[in-house]
Write a structure and sequence with these properties.
single chain, alpha+beta, Jelly Rolls, 2 domains, 4-stranded antiparallel beta sheet, 45% helix
């Protein structure tokens, strides 16, 4: 079949062979415009049809020509059509004066047959074949949803474009398996059906019902409003923080300004002032100087025996931490913070500062190649029009400049701004602390701010890396978004642990090496998501749980004695009953019962998460690993507060209670929005688009953008909770602060 017109020639064969499938019913919509006059319909133009065959037998051909009535699409009016691989369709849309030079083309379907949506310039012949639809066009594969944002510029500066829909003969481009492998073998049924004024001779073996609708894009003022509101919310945090600081300064300048308001503001800001000598307070036992002889006393709230000082006890002062632990366990004394804060303060502080510098170094070397990679992806998308490269939520992807999905990049601004704010808070707090460092020498939790600075830098870098990832999210760069989330969660747990174990520090090099191993495991989980990998991961996960439980239970001071197990095995061979009764049952009752039960609860949760992962072979391993990190951070938060409130009987400050409430208020909805699953780079682009949803906030932000904002707020309040959690014992002598 050859159709000749004034400027174009189109041809096809009957039956039509496509990827091993044969179609006996073929239809084509002829381009109604000349190359020179795109807006003028050639209503009286002639065309010629040539039919030829090499068959020696007569061939019967059914031929029908009809006029397409509803060829021009109108904005906000859905248009319904049936499409087959041998009968592609295309329609035209003309920009109107109120389109603001941007429209969204939405194509939906009620079935999962693989199709392609291509937006092309108004040029004849229209490219409607699987072999040429991608030439000078923007295109997507689709199953049930597709959305393309088209600007009146470049290819479409003439004010119009064609929307082409092609159903592919097989589903391999959208799915690894054909939805219906036998569909191509079904005999075709000819039908003469009218729909939207179009007479349709079609083959029902792979017929796809589609709906096309053109919607107005977001205006420039819409962009500005959404961005201004997000900035305003973040700036409100700065205003509130500076207001509290100013009020405290104002009260300090007033003469004789000692009263409940000042006490409240000092507690709210987390900074307590001290006189020249330490006075007794109802928070715990205070000392006038550090030269008091050791005396026996009891913790004011728990009743556990503690020693107030070992300065004059030569025998105990030379003990190592491990020996001291064993000595106190034998005497029934509780381990206190003074036992674990013996190292030189400046040396320990310098070790903690390495976290911040190491994180900045890693971020620099990690971030620059990441930016180069995603910009290359974005430029490739812009140049080729292939929108299968990046896994956007196309129903809420607003372009700006060279970026195709500006809103998901911009919504990370909360991480950056709140990271800077937390840095300023830590900086001010450290300045005040170091001005009075001698007065804090023997009271309160030792303050080392290196990890706090690292957390602030981590929050800022997470905003940068998440924004980088969202320039073009896909399977090749997923780690840009998740890596620093793992690091932040790990640093928060380290900071909580080292609050009560200041001398049991992990060097920054070892910590970041461990973070690197975590990222490497996540990478292998994404690339090699198989039963073998899950078996390996489950084994490593269980070993890590056992190690961490032992580390926390014995507070970092334990030694693995292999001879114990060899000796125990020998006893089992000799007299197993006596061996079990003597070596197992006699020590079955834990020495630290409350800690043991809490760790047992945390272990049960982790084992449950591990079993769920290996049972379901969770497809998105990076997200699964992030769930593990967030869950364990939450567990350790709960453990720390339980021990603080119910074992040590300490009462956190009002600011800490406020930040905990705000933290939970943000985390709960944040995790809900995170679980909506708008995209999924673990599958094909077409399947990923099935989960796309429209914007839910200001017509600019979707569920994932809301996750960005709420998680930024939640992490900021989490940091503030860690920073202020022990402010209530800032005036308490370290000999009365329990270690847990």
């Amino acid at each position: 079949m050859v159709v000749r017109r004034e400027t174009t020639v189109e041809s096809w064969t009957v039956p039509l062979e496509m990827r091993g499938h044969s179609f006996n019913t073929i239809s084509r919509i002829m381009c109604p415009f000349s190359v020179q006059q795109h807006q003028q319909v050639l209503a009286t133009a002639q065309f010629y049809i040539d039919v030829s065959t090499s068959s020696v037998e007569p061939v019967t051909i059914y031929f029908v020509a009809y006029k397409v009535e509803n060829f021009k699409l109108r904005r906000s009016e859905p248009f319904f059509m049936q499409v087959t691989p041998s009968s592609p369709v295309f329609f035209q849309y003309n920009f109107t004066s109120d389109d603001q030079d941007e429209v969204i083309v939405k194509v939906t379907s009620d079935d999962d047959l693989c199709a392609v949506v291509s937006v092309q310039e108004v040029l004849c012949p229209v490219r409607v074949l699987p072999s040429n639809y991608n030439y000078r066009a923007h295109y997507q594969s689709m199953m049930t949803k597709s959305a393309l944002t088209i600007k009146k510029q470049g290819l479409y500066d003439q004010g119009a474009f064609f929307v082409v829909v092609i159903v592919l003969p097989v589903d391999t481009e959208c799915s690894s398996n054909n939805i219906d492998p036998a569909s191509a073998a079904r005999p075709p049924r000819l039908t003469n059906r009218k729909r939207q004024g179009v007479t349709d001779f079609t083959d029902y073996s792979r017929q796809k019902n589609i709906s096309i609708v053109i919607e107005k894009g977001l205006t420039g003022s819409g962009y500005g409003l959404a961005m201004a509101i997000s900035i305003t919310v973040c700036v409100a945090f700065y205003i509130l923080g500076f207001l509290i600081i100013w009020l405290r300064w104002w009260f300090e300048q007033r003469p004789n300004s000692i009263g409940p308001k000042e006490s409240f503001l000092k507690r709210l800001t987390g900074i307590h002032s001290h006189g020249d000598n330490y006075e007794e307070s109802n928070e715990g036992v205070a000392l006038e100087n550090s030269d008091v002889k050791a005396i026996e006393s009891y913790h004011s709230t728990t009743g556990y025996p503690v020693r107030e000082s070992y300065d004059d006890d030569e025998e105990l002062s030379i003990l190592t931490i491990s020996q001291l632990f064993r000595h106190k366990q034998k005497t029934g004394e509780s381990i206190v913070v003074s036992d674990l804060s013996r190292d030189d303060r400046k040396l320990t502080s310098s070790k903690y500062r390495q976290y911040a510098w190491t994180l900045l170094t890693v971020a620099l070397f990690y971030g620059l190649p990441a930016v180069q990679l995603v910009i290359a992806y974005q430029l490739t998308l812009n140049h080729t029009g292939n929108e299968n490269i990046c896994y956007y939520n196309f129903l809420c992807a607003h372009p700006y400049g060279i970026l195709s999905d500006f809103n998901h990049v911009w919504s990370n601004v909360g991480y950056a701004l709140l990271g800077i704010l937390f840095f300023l808070i830590v900086f001010r707090r450290s300045r005040i602390y170091y001005r009075k460092v001698n007065k804090f020498e023997h009271v309160g939790i030792p303050q080392y701010f290196g990890l706090y600075y690292a957390m602030a830098f981590g929050l800022f870098v997470e905003g940068f890396m998440s924004g980088t990832y969202h320039i073009c999210p896909n399977k090749a760069n997923f780690q840009f978004d998740t890596s620093f989330m793992y690091i932040i969660a790990g640093m928060c747990m380290l900071r909580l642990y080292q609050s009560r174990h200041p001398d049991i520090e992990t060097s920054a090099y070892r910590a970041f090496f461990a973070f690197g191993v975590v990222i490497l495991i996540a990478l292998f989980g994404v690339l090699y998501n198989s039963v073998a990998f899950w078996g390996f991961f489950f084994t490593v996960y269980m070993i890590a749980i056992i190690f961490i439980n032992v580390e926390i239970y014995y507070m970092g001071k334990w030694v693995f004695v292999f001879e114990f197990f060899t000796g125990f095995c020998g006893k089992l061979r000799g007299n197993p009953v006596q061996a079990v009764r003597k070596d197992c049952l006699t020590c079955s009752r834990p020495h630290y019962q409350s800690r043991w039960f809490l760790l047992l609860f945390a272990t049960a949760i982790n084992v449950g998460i591990a079993i769920y992962g290996i049972a379901s072979l969770y497809p998105d391993f990076a997200t699964y690993f992030l769930i593990i990190m967030i869950a364990n951070l939450g567990i350790y938060f709960a453990y720390y507060f339980f021990m603080k409130l119910f074992i040590a009987r300490e009462r956190p400050s009002k600011l800490t209670f406020l930040t905990v409430v705000l933290m939970l208020t943000c985390w709960v909805p944040a995790l809900y929005f995170f679980g909506q699953g708008l995209t999924n780079w673990a599958t094909t682009p077409a399947k990923s688009r099935n989960g796309n949803r429209s914007c839910i906030l200001f017509g600019f932000y979707d569920d994932h953008d809301v996750w960005h904002f709420l998680s930024a707020f939640a992490m900021f309040f989490s940091f503030m909770t860690i920073l202020t959690v022990d402010d209530d014992i800032m005036d308490q002598d370290r000999n009365g602060i329990l270690v847990f």
